[in-house]
Write the C-alpha cells for this entry.
Amino acid sequence: MARCETCGTELQDASQRLCGGDRCRAVYMRPPTPGGPGSGLDLREALRIVRPLLLLILFVSLATTRTADGEVPTAADFAACNEQAPQAVKAGTASPTMADHARADRARGGAMTTNSPDVTATVIESSDPQIHGMQAEGAKNATYQAAYRGCMRRKGF
C-alpha cells in the first residue's frame, strides 16, 4: 500500500502521492497571486485603484447628459399650438385624458383663470406649461386640450 508523502496516511489509490486530508490540505493550496484574492490588498491601494475609475465614470456621465434648457413658452408657441389644436381635433388625432375632461368641465363652469394679453383672444393662465396660453374657448373642449398639450410637448414644454 502507498502512503501519503506528507502525513503518512494510507492512500486508497497507489498512483496518488498525497492524501488531501486536513494535514495535507496546505499542500494543495496555491500561493496567493499579487493583487489577487487573499493577497492582502490594503484599503489605500484599493482606493488608489478605484478612485480614478469613479472619477472617470462621473466625468463621462456629466459629459454625456444634456443640460436642462429651462425654456419658457413664448406667445409664438401659444399661437402655434392654438392654431394646430383645432386641426388635430378635426383629424381625431388627440386623445383626452380624465384630467382634460375635468379641466374642460371647470372651464365650461367658468372656474378657470383667464387673462387677455391682446384684444383678439382670452387665454388660460396655468402653472402647467402644457395648458398655459390655451384659448379660453378651446379649454372648454377636452379633445382640444389634449391636442394643445400634445403640441406643447412636441415643442419641448
